[in-house]
Amino acid sequence: MCRNQEGKSLENLRSLIDELDSELLKLLNKRAKYVIKIGKIKQKEKKDVLVPQREKLLLERLTSINEGPMTDSMVMILFQQIIDTLKDLQKQKI
User: Fold this and answer.
1) Contact between 41 and 94 (Cβ < 8 Å)
2) Cα angle at 76 between 26 and 91, to 5 degrees?
3) HSE toward the beta carbon, residue 76, CA cutoff 13 A
């Protein structure tokens, strides 16, 4: 059994990552539900799905609170992908 400097085994660390991945998926689906609700409001009010200023502010906020070890660039890429993926939910006729 391989152990790191903190005494946690590789298997234990992978198990912790699996738990975090499950929690991340739940949170992303929760975020998606809010995105769908926003999409319905935008459709009803005939507003654009794309709001570049909102995306810019979101990414700025996230990078300002980023404490690492991910770089700000990594955070921006990751969240831009989340935003782009979930925009498709807003574009759907719900």
Assistant:
1) no
2) 60
3) 10
What whole-number distance in Å separates Cα of residue 13 and Cα of residue 23? 15
Query: What's the CA gap between 28 and 74, in Å, rounded?
Result: 18
Q: Cα dihedral sign for 66, 81, 48, 25?
A: negative
Give the residue-averaged pLDDT of 72-92: 91
What digits encode the pLDDT tens for the residues 12-52?
A: 999 999 999 999 999 999 999 999 998 889 889 988 878 88
For residue 31, which of 94, 83, 76 has the smallest C-alpha distance? 83
The domains found in the chain, sorted by start residue, are 10-91 (1.20.59.10)
Model's pTM, two decimal places?
0.80
